Amino acid sequence: MSNTLLALIVLALGAIGYVIGRQRALKATDGDQRKLHSLPSYYGTNVLLKTMVPAFLLMLVWLLAQPIVVDRSVRAGLQDESVRQDRSVSLVMTDVRRVANGLGIAVEQGVMSRDEARSLDTQSTDVRARLGEAGVALGSDVTPAVLEAAQQYRGLSGTGDIARFALVVALALAGLGWGVRESTPSFRARNSVERGIKSLLILASCIAILTTIGIVLSLVFNTIEFFRIYPARDFFLSTTWSPSFGGGSELGILPLLWGTLYISLIALLVAVPIGLFAAVYLSEYASKRVRSVAKPAIEILAGIPTIVYGLFALLTIGPLLLRVFGDDTVGWMDGGTAVMTAGLAMGIMLIPFVSSLSDDVINAVPQAMRDGSYGLGATQSETIKQVILPAALPGIVGAILLAASRAIGETMIVVLGAGAAARLSLNPFEAMTTVTAKIVSQLTGDADFSSAEALVAFALGMTLFVVTLGLNVLALYIVRKYREQYE
Amino acid sequence: QSRENVQIAGSSTVLPYATIVAEAFGENTDFPTPVVESGGSSTGLSRFCEGVGEGTIDVANASRAIRDGEVETCASNGVEEIIEVRIGYDGIVFASQQSGPEFTAFEPSDWYQALAANLPQDGEMASNPNSNWSDVNGDLPDVEISAFIPGTRHGTREVFEENVLLAGCEETGAYDAMVNDMGMSEDDAEAACMEVRTDGASVDIDGDYTETLARLESNPDGVGVFGLAFYENNTDTLKVATMSGVQPSTETIASGEYPVSRPLFFYIKKAHIGVIPGLKEYAQFFMADEIAGPDGPLSNYGLVSLPEGELDEVQQRIENETTMDSQS
Amino acid sequence: MYDADHNRTENRVGQTDIKISAKDVQVYYGTNHAIKDVSVDIQDKTVTAFIGPSGCGKSTFLRCINRMNDTIDIARMEGLIEIDGENIYDKRVDPVQLRAKVGMVFQKPNPFPKSIYDNVAYGPKIHGLAKNKAELDEIVETALRRGAIWDEVKDRLDAPGTGLSGGQQQRLCIARAVATEPEVLLMDEPCSALDPIATSQVEELIDELKQNYSVVIVTHSMQQAARVSQKTAFFHLGNLVEYDDTEKIFTNPQDSRTESYITGRIG
Amino acid sequence: MYDADHNRTENRVGQTDIKISAKDVQVYYGTNHAIKDVSVDIQDKTVTAFIGPSGCGKSTFLRCINRMNDTIDIARMEGLIEIDGENIYDKRVDPVQLRAKVGMVFQKPNPFPKSIYDNVAYGPKIHGLAKNKAELDEIVETALRRGAIWDEVKDRLDAPGTGLSGGQQQRLCIARAVATEPEVLLMDEPCSALDPIATSQVEELIDELKQNYSVVIVTHSMQQAARVSQKTAFFHLGNLVEYDDTEKIFTNPQDSRTESYITGRIG
Amino acid sequence: MTDATAGATPAVDPGRKSKSIITTDDNTRRRNRAEKRFQYYGIAAIGVGVFFLLALTFSILRSGLPAFTETAVSLEINLSQEQFDEAESKLLKTGAYEQLFVQALQQQLNAEGEGDVEVEEDAVGRIMGNVGSEIREFYLANQDQLGAPVTFNVPASSRVDRYLNGGLSRESLAESKFLTPEDLDIVDRLVEAGTLTNVIDWDFITGTDSGVDNPGGAGLGASVIGSFFMMLVVLVLSLPIGVAASIYLEEFAPQNKLTDFIEVNISNLAAVPSIVYGILGLAVFIQFAGLPQSAPLVGGLVLTLMTLPTIIISTRASLKSVPPSIRSAALGVGASKMQSVFHHVLPLAMPGILTGTIIGLAQALGETAPLLLIGMVGYVARGYPDGIVSGLMDPNSAMPAQIYTWAARSDPAFYEKAWGGIIILLVFLLAMNALAIILRRKFERRW
Ligand SMILES: Nc1ncnc2c1ncn2[C@@H]1O[C@H](COP(=O)(O)OP(=O)(O)OP(=O)(O)O)[C@@H](O)[C@H]1O
Ligand SMILES: Nc1ncnc2c1ncn2[C@@H]1O[C@H](COP(=O)(O)OP(=O)(O)OP(=O)(O)O)[C@@H](O)[C@H]1O
Ligand SMILES: [Mg+2]
Ligand SMILES: [Mg+2]
Ligand SMILES: O=P([O-])([O-])[O-]
């Protein structure tokens, strides 16, 4: 509640700052904005940013830190006496927080007065029952120590809340003052604002790095643990994948990697040509009406849950392929689940990834390029193939990379469509499986979570991460080399 | 903020029963409906063992007993007191399409001979020559072997390997042949008994029983391994085969006649009792006679409930909050 | 190859075969009536200049002749244009073949984002004018020479065409257009970004082209029109005001507007 | 607002304040040395013409003056350019402010894919030149008038700027550039697509601008250079061959290359 | 030149007949055929896409539409205070109410029946779905109705529903313990009497999940809300962050090793299996930051991280495709880089950005795996949140998670529910995309 209020106050101060900053700058030049370095709105925005950004940052940090600090000090008080023999401090703290919260709710609902909440003791009151009246359920009766700690908790939090409120508002005001003082005609407000925005942009791109670090960190420890109990050599070089419970599993990643690449390849062989042709048709040939219907329609394919594709692969594509390539005809295929089955279903799913994005970039190629080609007597398809697609190449590569990534990361279709067999084979009509599918199954299975069979999921994840990283570096390198010719 | 609800995670085999209980618990008590996550026994236990406190789960469902290594990890993370609750048994049945070939009776030996990677032949291990069920046993239909068995991530697989494959291996004398004639160590022989062929006759299913069912749907000659509850819910599309002459049912499993079954569990963090409202009540509710007893909704759904005495003992254990180490 | 025929064809300049014949052409951009009722006969083996103030519809009319207006959504054309007696808006006409026959140099140079070589080789390749790489190389070289840009780019044929200076791009586009050997060449201000020398080289090219082909050139330079063209058409506000022998237009215009324009009084 | 100062400043034409001073400027495109060692002082309130054959580096040098070369990845500049005594490549210099001060009309017209009005209003808007809509309208109208295009577009200010004819686009870009009231205006062949009348209107504009500002114009027309400029610089193969009073360059060039060029012998 | 070229193109001679444009020559015919082929490939590609869309839609609709109806029993019962008190004293109160209802129905059947065959209570129990909680809820809220007749409309068992829909035959029930062929006679009687009717199952659209033995009570409503809050988080975070990151990388970042590293990283993040994001989310948001489990906020954050690469990659691709002349034009009138990007480049790149957003959100909306680890898959029947904060923080499920759990349940009725859920998911998706698609149309232009 008070946080919402605080946020609103800061927002209001920001708005006020905007107006003042703008006015002050304008006033200094008697309303002639031409004499200002920047547009008046930049002066306003400058003040607004200076008012709001530090204040919100402080508020955020404080909100994160206060519970920790309060926790720490209440905890210190509990340490000696009251930690029940069989309870860790953290659980007692859970109780303390629950009671403290309960008191808060009770006060809010008028079940208890503020003083009462402060002076309550376990002898004279059944705290559990009183809190029950306010709809706060407690797991057990409240001990005096816990109640006391809860009251202390409430006190500290209350003080913290007030201090936060005051400091945040003060900081906002300070920022406002600073910004307003700066708002002189010669102040480079635009540069200042743009610097601020640029920092925000940089911050946004850092999130990608943070995510990467997070992923690596969340995988790496268990991966190390895995390699401690399972030889890395076997993991990377063995061509057999056969986990079992009794120990003695063989956990070679090669067949899984092979399956991943094979299935992704087939999916891309389906999705890229179909997607590109669809994109080309939509952007170059189709009438506006057809385009406005077909494009979003195809995009639905990306939104159909993958389990549907999995079932579609299993129940429709598999039997169909079996009829064509099965024992009755050429005998390449033994069962309905195969690399081909999953690859086809996945390919369908990936069509919109390629088509929609490529359509947008193709559409963005300037008309002058087309005119130039038509003017030479090129047919539309020649123009597309030789002028437009090369011009749109960077974007198309991006789209294909996205589709490839999605193919590598897909699980459900593989589980249902490809069969679960980990094998190294060239025949696309055989069952295989992928790294991702095995990550999911090893992670969510029945194996002992500290065993190699479960930990291998992390090693698989880590390896896949490194492998795709390598592939991406390669892709970047190729694109760069290719692109340099053009720009 | 403090957590209001009981938080449960773990086995997908226990999940159905847990949902029945959770729904009833929410409807019949003043506590909020517990949250039951699926994700597998292993995930559930690993989260269970992350530590104590509100941010961790209170109960882990498991379709197998917790392992020593896991207990150690738990302990090292401060989860020292665990209450083990055995809720009943899960029967494992062999079923095929209602309209498919006549699979009506199996012996463990049939399965062993059909699925083993290698069979002893003239004092040597040779790769399994059987391609049709009738090659294995003349009474079985003459259709290609196509079995859908639980993948290695499933606890069911372990039961299948031990109670069916290994049993069949011993029944046919293959085990003895390996140990005595070929001079294999007992461990090696056991491993050889349980090694499943990879030429496509047997398909590992990593997903749920619905996936096995879907596989059968696209392959009418297939035979699949299911949980009893699943089969009972799908008698319109599946027909079940006897194993060693015994028809699977809650009664034959409870009595121990039917050979393939496994116990199901959930584990409670004792430290959370009294901290998380409703935790103990949930466990009590779960194992109450009206729920987990032979006439309760769980049994009605397909859980093989605990025999009378055992149920009492479990109820007692919950009541007294008896932890695992204190019972042993 | 043009040179070879030079002598034989020289004498036929001035003949009056009609190559392109437009009748009552109207062009609308949405509701904007950009070309009003234009009828004109353009002769073979002749250079025809289109002059007129900016925005009067020269480019628009030019684009009608090889149906480049088709690519502008909002453009709508009415009337009849015949080339060699064939209605180019006939259903059976393949605009691709038309455009191969009627080449075009656009007002704004628009090199492809490809190498200089590929820019020029593109047309010959799609029309199958070269049997092999060596022949193609030759075609490219010849075209670049005729576009008066060979010397500047011969060492950087692999560099992107978009990295050239404005005038170089313009000449590249001219080279690109002549490389496909069109029968009619439409040039929309081909020398606007060229220095006098390059301009005169292009003018020479035009002169050479007219031995065999018909060239239509849009220009804002009266001098240029007078220098290179045999016929001149003066457009004003979408109307074809006057069309006659160049000499006549520049010495004795019939319409007062024409006179005003060439003497620099209306724009 | 320029007109207001017209009379007062008239008499000061011909003064020799140095506005832009370039010393030893080198520009490389990758390994291509496009500008070699160019030093030149450009005076205030003067029109300076850059002439030279196509591809000699005029545009490149022009783009150095307002640091538009910064946007070309492979372009690298060395040397010193000062405007009003301040090194424009100094770290503290804000290229944005520089470009607001040094306006530019590009060789290839590049209107924004927005309405004509917005094309012109964009600069004044971001520089805060108008207090309100009415003022902005006025600025736009004035700019379009000065760009000699007002009459043609006044009825279609909401139409997209990209739907104009080539010459109209060019004038729109001129209007857009003058709308921001730069102190220096760099014009890269501003009249290349214009008819004589429009050209003379733009030349008038240039004449008017020089009362207060400094104008640099690239042109291929010797006549135009002679007409509008007071100073002329002749570039050749990346070198500044000669820089002097226009009159002198055209009547008595010092360098033989200059002479060859203006008499039409080298290109 | 002359010599060299004369041989090259002998076709040109002064008196040559100029080519007709109406009669096509061989070369053009060949090229036109290629053109036609190319165009047909395009049409075929679209056709393939649309065909699969239709095929999938058809199978989804066929399997899912029955989920929207249910077979309901309407019955008037009269509960006394004593019966109420007794039921309330039980541990399994809902069971007691159910029994009362079943008894009432049994009585009615026997009363109006021919009298010769007694209908067993068990048989009636098998016909009914789980009805106890509905009845209990009603009487807890309306105790004044005790002792007065009240008509209830409650679901019959899922098998009865399937039988009446033609999904079950008598023969197939031979082995079933949940419904016997004989029970169907009673069902037929009830249908004739109008006690059993087919009605729209509003609970399915608005309700929460139910236990596995109660398919009639299962609903998707709460998880729609869960998904809504998740998507809200995803949209609010991933679009601005993704666009901001792309702008920085594409327009401002110096070309150096670091930005290359970031670029490669982002493409790589797109290839990280979604369950790994779940692992990350569990570690960072739940264990480290202490956010609650099963909360849509956490789900949204995880999906945001997962969606970011998609949005960044597509945004960068479309920023790249904006021609440089636009940037020069803006810089040339003295716009700052920031202004040129925000005023000119970004609007032109908008279609691509929106496409990336549509695809990214579609992917996020249908994703289950990462939710597995942060507690949103399973049984999370917590009903509706009462505000934004509670919507974000209270445990909830999400549509794909709910569908996934249903699809794994034994009772085939849940399989139907899963497909029905997919229909709702797609409707939600379409609604979500509609705005983006309209916006995209507005921004699309060619120049
Ligand atoms: N973006 C670029 N990348 C590489 N080289 C370039 C680029 N722009 C120009 N050049 C080269 O630099 C040299 C000078 O080009 P510049 O554009 O300055 O010529 P210019 O004098 O303006 O010619 P024009 O009159 O034809 O416009 C030319 O050789 C040209 O090919
Ligand atoms: N794509 C278009 N959309 C709408 N109107 C257009 C388009 N192209 C040209 N116009 C308009 O049509 C008229 C004729 O334009 P056109 O380009 O033919 O002029 P032009 O004679 O070539 O002029 P310039 O010498 O300036 O190139 C002009 O009023 C112009 O604004
Ligand atoms: Mg034109
Ligand atoms: Mg230039
Ligand atoms: O999910 P399970 O651990 O029971 O296989």
From TrEMBL, chain A:
InterPro entries: MetI-like, MetI-like_sf, Phosphate_PstC, PstC_N. The chain crosses the membrane at residues 45-65, 162-180, 200-223, 260-282, 302-322, 342-366, 387-408, 454-479. One of its GO terms (molecular function) is phosphate transmembrane transporter activity. Gene3D superfamilies: MetI-like. CDD domains: TM_PBP2. It is a multi-pass membrane protein. It comes from the Bacteria. Signal peptide: none annotated. GO terms for biological process: phosphate ion transport. It is found in: Cell inner membrane; Cell membrane. GO terms for cellular component: plasma membrane. Pfam families: BPD_transp_1 (PF00528), DUF3708 (PF12501). Keywords: Cell inner membrane, Cell membrane, Membrane, Phosphate transport, Transmembrane, Transmembrane helix, Transport. Residues 257-475 form the ABC transmembrane type-1 domain. Part of the binding-protein-dependent transport system for phosphate; probably responsible for the translocation of the substrate across the membrane. Belongs to the binding-protein-dependent transport system permease family. CysTW subfamily. This is Phosphate transport system permease protein.
UniProtKB/TrEMBL annotation, chains C, D:
Residues 20-262 form the ABC transporter domain. GO terms for biological process: phosphate ion transmembrane transport. InterPro entries: AAA+_ATPase, ABC_transporter-like_ATP-bd, ABC_transporter-like_CS, P-loop_NTPase, PstB-like. It is a peripheral membrane protein. Coiled coil: none annotated. One of its GO terms (cellular component) is plasma membrane. One of its GO terms (molecular function) is ATP hydrolysis activity. Keywords: ATP-binding, Cell membrane, Membrane, Nucleotide-binding, Phosphate transport, Translocase, Transport. It is found in: Cell inner membrane. PANTHER family: ABC TRANSPORTER I FAMILY MEMBER 17. Part of the ABC transporter complex PstSACB involved in phosphate import. Responsible for energy coupling to the transport system. This is Phosphate transporter ATP-binding protein. It comes from Roseivivax marinus. The lineage of its organism: Bacteria, Pseudomonadati, Pseudomonadota, Alphaproteobacteria, Rhodobacterales.
UniProtKB/TrEMBL annotation, chain E:
The keyword Transcription does not apply. Residues 1-28 are annotated as: Disordered. CDD domains: TM_PBP2 (cd06261). The chain crosses the membrane at residues 38-61, 224-249, 269-291, 297-319, 345-366, 418-439. It is a multi-pass membrane protein. PROSITE patterns: ABC_TM1. Keywords: Cell membrane, Membrane, Transmembrane, Transmembrane helix, Transport. GO terms for cellular component: plasma membrane. Belongs to the binding-protein-dependent transport system permease family. CysTW subfamily. This is Phosphate transport system permease protein PstA. It comes from Roseivivax marinus.
